[in-house]
Amino acid sequence: MSLQVVVIKATNVPNAEKFGESDPYVAIEFQGIKKKTEVKKSNLNPVWNETFDLDLSGRPLTASDELQVSVMDWERVGRNRLLAQTKVPLRNLLRGGAQTESLNLSLKDSNGRPTQAQLEMKLMYKPPASAAPPASSGAAGGSDPTQESQGQVMGDSLLEGDEEEEEEEVDTGPPQIDPATGQVIPKPKRKKKRGNKMGRRKLLENLSTKPTDFQIRVKVIEARQLQGGNIQPVAKVTVANQTKQTRVKKSTNSPCWNEAFFFNFKISPAELMDELVEFKVFNSKKLRSDALIGSFKCDVGMVYLEQRHAFLQKWLLLSDPEDQMAGAKGYLKVCVCVIGPGDEAPSFKAVAGEETDDIESNLLRPAGVQLRPATFILKLYRAEDIPRMDSAFMQGVKKVFGIGEEQKELVDPYFVFSFAGKEVQSKIMYNNDHPDWNQVLKIGIQFPSMCERLKFIIRDWDRISEDDTIGTEFLFTSLISSSSGGSGIYFCFLPTFGPSFVNFYGSTREYSDLPDEYDDLNLGKGEGVAYRGRALVEIQTLLGELPEIPVEDINNDDLLRVQKFMRRRKYKLHAAFLNATMVSAIDAPVEFEISIGNYGNKLDENTAPCASTTQPTNAVFDGCHYYFLPWAGTKPCIVVESSWEDISFRLEGLNLMLKIIDTLEANIEQVKIGIKAKLPTPELAQLLISLLDQLEQDCKKPLPEPKPGKHVSNELDRLTREYRQFELENIGHSVGKLKQSATDVHEAIAEVENFLQILRNMAKEPQNSMPDVVVWMISGDKRLAYYRIPAHEVLWSANPEYIGKQCGRLQTIQLKYPGVKAEKEKISEVPAMVRVKIWLGLANEDDAWHHMQTEGEQAVFAETYENECNLPVVGWTKKGPLGRPKWSDSQGKCKLPREMFNPPPGWKWEGDWYVSPELSMLFDKDAGHKTYMEECYEMQSRLPATSWGPATRPWTDVKGDEMPPKDSVELPPGWVWEDVWQIDLSRAVDEDGWEYCVEATMGGYGPVEKRYHLCRRRRWVRTRKLVEDAKQKKHKEKKMEEAAEGWEYAPLFNLKFHHTERTMDMVRRRRWHRKMVCEKKGADCFFAMNFEDEDDKEDFNAAYAAPRMFLTFKKPYKYQLRAYVYQLMAGDTGISDPYARISFLTQSSVTERMEKSLCPTWDQTLIFEEIEIYGDPQALEENPPEVVIEIFDYDKFGSNEFLGRTKAHPMVKLDPSDARMPVLQWYPITRGPEDGGELLAAFELFLVPDKNASMESLLAGSDLPFLPPKKGDLFLVPNGIRPVMQRTAIEVLCWGVRNMQKFQLAAVTSPSVEFECGGHVMESSIIKNTKKNPNFNENVLFFDVMLPREELYMPPMNIRIRDHRQFGRKPTVGIHVLKSLEEYRCDPIRREQEEEEEGVQGVSSSEITQSELEGLMSAAVDRYKDIQSSVSQVDSAHTSYQTGGLVNGARSGEHVIEMPTEEKKKEVTIK
Questions:
Q1: What whole-number distance in Å separates Cα of residue 804 and Cα of residue 791?
Q2: d(CA 974, CA 1035)
């Protein structure tokens, strides 16, 4: 298979020479293959007659393939010039079999203008034998857009029976005689299908008339494209006069129900097949007369005759039963199956990859309902920022041998447009990372379609392997069209989009020859972690016709019209990092990068210079579990310059809508809290009126308009703005009516929530062409974790109503691991928590960012590293084999001597160069530890056949560096020894603690001595404890003096550096800074380097000449955090040994571990002392840092199981005498996407006063409050914060068990039930044999416990069932949690009053005193104890209890419990 091109001749070739004539030759390019004819010198009518064979590598041609033909002028000196060119489409060669085409082409110049030149060519193509016959049209993907499937018409399956195949002879003329045999050669036969039209109908006629049990299962999944505006759809299913309905979905045209219904019948099959299945979708907001949106009905026989008697994942076209010609009213997706005796029910689970199929062929439509043909027209202009996708191996070979042309972009992109299973693709642009396709792609559809998203894919063509996907983006049709608006069809418009850029996201941009572990992100599966490029597209919809040609070129008028949409303006992205905590990367220095688009990408060599990363810093231990970056008072800042289209009018409108939504959600929450708190009706009414007033005012706020000369809007911008304006006016009008007519708070809130849903539907911007801001954590050259921030959230605007929610505000970001790997492997740890301020705006408006920085001083520094190596005899020197420049950047990639730095224009030096040590050098190895185990190794050696003796280095550390003997180890200031030196026998050693090896420098120690072993060692350990005193402070000061030299040491430059020199260290470095100040506003701060050697200029990458920026603070403020952790209400985790780990900035701590508890009560206060926080305390009070609480289940033999995480903001008290008291709150715990329960806790942050501060200072407050009371070594939650307890009686009537499933393959035969509430446990009697009697002998259980008075703090009732088995085993076979006992609470006095009314003597509530009340309570307790006297195993109210066994959360049974209060019964399913 090949494509053969014959270049015959050319006429009237343009003359590009001033003297003489051109020297033309023809260049042909196809799929990266380039061919050239010979040069015809001084000839404007050349004749070549040359033939070229283009190898297609086994791939057939497609309809979108083109041949690029160029006529060039050969030049002896300089580049060859283009004389004329053209593109030859190859679709005419796809008619089947070998094809030949002669062409006489008119050529165009480089600007697309026609010339007089003509080129005569001939094309010959022979397809491969395996190539499929071409479609009648050239649609890519082999589908014929002129024959669109409108789905299956209802009733076809009943008329057309099973298809049968038969063979018929092909008429090839008169009979042929075989000369060898003399026999007639049989004619070839072909298979022909014919329908057995009566087959299925006979099946229904032969059905039994005997009544049989049937079940019809129906699952209503979702609906799409429902007609109407602001509807509240509900679906009803009717089968043989049985009707069931789904839940109501609020304010949506695409509801998702996922509800299943079961219809049971005892009827003959013949009668059942004639019954109807009817689906109706109603708008529940309207009156019954006009509530129907659309319906669909068919008989049961139609379902029964399908494969497996079921419709699976079928789409139904809804229509108006009274007007079939009105067209489609929407689409409903359902599953239906008919189950008879002996039938197996099919699975209703969705099939993976369903959206990739042609779902329009999976449509059932009523007879008589027609869909209109339509065409999606996608104008594809260009793309940019496409990453490298191919290896540079051949480029390197050509560079070595000095052959080949200029450097090429290593990517061959093409664009794929897909909708409803059909796709069409553009031409391939070879070696081009910024392709200009300028093509129109067309897809034929049936309108309206139930498909909701357009799919855009950019792929990289590969000659050998399968094409790679660069990026995938989806565009939902509901965002770019409107089926109905407000009160009619005024705002109905067909899908339209652009011209606008569409951004693509996927895996990281860095190219690797190894497989990409995040390649699924490029397919649109999961959240993309990096920007992968963008494409300029425009979409139009044409009704009434289908496309004839799927791909064609864009005309020149459209190319000129779209130029104005590509105008760029300069933006600046500022960020200031204040803290980085809970850092997981501890093996190498960590830095953070912020980028927008490809601007700021540190690892991309093609990006412009910018200070987009923080300085590399080693993480430091916080004393408990986590690590943090010790930035102290120098907070790193970054700035990234970029250029984008000015679409601020779109993003400002989106910000306004989001601000209205946030305000409304907060007000609704206030009203709901008031309802829950049972506020008086007037107060609730006041809250509601305030909410409605605020919403009415918000709806009157003007939407931003595009400014002429500054913004360029398109048709969708105009339609979107009009639609939003109309809906806001409509909501405002409805709110006014609601204020006058509302009589019930609950009904009014339900109506307001409908308004909220309408606002949410409008708060989306499909034409957001500005890429997201991406924060990356980088260690070495590896990207570890990321976080994406939509650009509109940090966008600056002069109008405070339009400014981004997080613009310039201090926010806490929890980074995420890329891809779905973290979810699959259930990685629970947080990569890092970052407190950062981010600001995005036009470059000429960045004064707003500087005005926001009221805390600290911004400073800009030049940075370089001094590198040295250690040579024998010579010592430390710069003259040795460094492997990197003597002065370089932190990575050693660039040569940066100090004298080469010149201040940029508009900047000047302030001061001289100085050593700026790496911040983690100020921390010892025991930093953050309260206790530390000191260690040293006793080393011995021997010669063969001699005894052991001290080695050359008798005492070393674990790395083999010499250290003093154990008795000479100095105790650091501020520490005391807790014990004496001991031999560590907990390792693989012999009985004396020795481990042996052949050579100490080679390692490989073992516990057994061999004759060939020449070295041995043993480990001595001793624990020391931290004691704060003045000596330790002096030690810190001395440490800072030692760090002033700034040297960092390492064995090699690519390994982790440390601040103490070791024996194996061969290299060292230190960082130098020099401060710059700005003289000219807005001047760029990138250096102009002075290079003495021309080679340095070629090797230097300008991206590394960016300066470092810092926000410097003079001194920190000290705070104390008190964490009051009271109780955990666990989710479905079962019995565990939970403990809580709390992290706050640079410190963390843990609570005590609760043994075998379902809902533990810690009642503990954790105190974090001397937390240093930089910045204004008043700003901290407005926006305090987050407290992170993580819950774990302790495991003795493995890693602790992660149970969940939650976050909280502490109450900040700048004056310790502040009388406010924090209130315990329930914080929701999440475990990934799952619910992990709730934590009852409160947090207080005190500003520690300074006794030496002036009276006007904030630090001149009173002393901190007294510490909470202690219980052992633990602090309790203090009074005033902890719940108020009261004596409470709980009575349980325990009847028996039912339907207990097997546990560990054995039946549950002897169960008992345990009830636990507030730490008190009661156990029922044991049922001896549930088969004989499933009820308990003693039914009454009574608790006398102290429980919180407030219902908010009431602990749950935990119920466990244990099965008593042989050998004393008592496994837990089921658990259940009653989260609230409020509905069972009663007033005992009120109960006595009721008895008095019934003739039983009681006491009046007006006459009772406190002492009498206590007496009555005691009498009641005594009475219940008398009832319980027969139960010997019941202990007092202070019974201690320990559980054992495993929780079987998957098994379930039924446990009958009666709460006697108010005569209510509660039936519980034990899980």
A1: 8
A2: 8
> Residues 501, 383: contact at Cβ < 8 Å?
no
pLDDT digits (tens, 9 = 90+) for 280-328: 999 887 656 668 888 998 888 888 888 888 988 888 988 888 877 777 8
1352, amino acid identity: L
Which structure tokens are listed for 832? 């890092």
What count of other Cβ atoms lies within 10 Å of the Cβ of residue 594?
Answer: 27
SS3 523: helix
Judge whether 26 and 119 are in contact, CB under 8 Å: yes
User: What type of residue sits at position 203?
Assistant: L
Tokens 């009051």 -> residue:
1124
Edge-to-edge strands, sheet with 1453-1459: 1340-1348, 1285-1298, 1453-1459, 1464-1470
Our measurement of the distance from residue 249's CA atom to the centroid of its chain's CA atoms, rounded to an integer in Å, reads: 26
Cβ atoms of 152 and 363 closer than 8 Å: yes
Q: What's the number of CA atoms in the CB half-sphere (13 Å) around residue 1294?
A: 26
CA distance 1108 to 861: 5
Lookup result for tokens 């997706």 = 333
What confidence score (pLDDT) does residue 142 get? 39
pTM: 0.76
Using CA atoms, how far apart are residues 226 and 291, in angstroms rounded to an integer?
13
Q: What is the pLDDT of residue 179?
A: 43
The token duo for 361 is 């062929």
Signed CA dihedral, 1179, 1182, 1186, 1187: sign only: positive
Query: What are 153's two structure tokens?
Result: 């018409």
Which burial class, exposed, middle or buried, applies to 970 when counting CB atoms under 10 A from its CB (0-12, 13-18, 19+)?
exposed
- Distance from C-alpha of 794 to C-alpha of 784, rounded to nearest angstrom: 24
Closest CA to 64 of 463, 390, 423: 423
In this structure, what is the dihedral angle of CA atoms 874, 878, 880, 886, given to the nearest 10 degrees?
Answer: 170
Nearest to 799 by CA among 841, 844, 843: 841
Q: What share of the chain is helix, strand, coil (3-state, %, to 5)?
A: 20, 40, 45
Residue ranges of the chain whose pLDDT lies below 50: 132-149, 155-167, 169-174, 176-184, 191-199, 353-357, 397-406, 485-489, 1094, 1097-1104, 1391-1392, 1394-1395, 1397-1408, 1424-1425, 1427-1471
* Strand locations in 872-980 (E): 875-877, 887-888, 907-915, 931-941, 949-956, 975-977
Is the backbone peptide bond immediately before 1278 cis, with ω within 30 degrees of 0? no
pLDDT in tens, 648-700: 999 999 999 999 999 999 999 999 888 887 788 888 889 999 999 999 999 99
Instruction: Report the alpha-carbon distance of residue 963 to residue 959 in Å, rounded.
Output: 11
Looking at residue 664, its amino acid is: L
Q: Show the 3-state SS of 1044-1097.
A: HHCCEEECCCCCCCECCCCCCCCEEEEEEEEEEEECCCCCCCCCCCCCCCHHHH
**Predicted pLDDT at 1412:** 56
Cα separation, 1248 vs 1259, in Å, equals 7
| Residues 396 and 418: beta-carbon distance below 8 Å | no
Q: HSE (CB half, 13 Å, CA atoms) of 553? A: 12
- Nearest CA to 868 out of 1137, 1057, 1133 is that of 1057
DSSP 399: H
Cα–Cα distance measured from residue 1367 to residue 367, given in angstroms and rounded to the nearest whole number = 71
Q: How far is CA 390 from CA 465, 508, 881, 1158, 1382, in A?
A: 11, 15, 34, 55, 67
Give dist(CA 2, CA 60) in Å, integer. Answer: 9
Say how far apart CA 341 and CA 345 lie, in whole Å. 11
Residue 1450 has what pLDDT? 34
> Tokens 């049936």 identify what position?
446
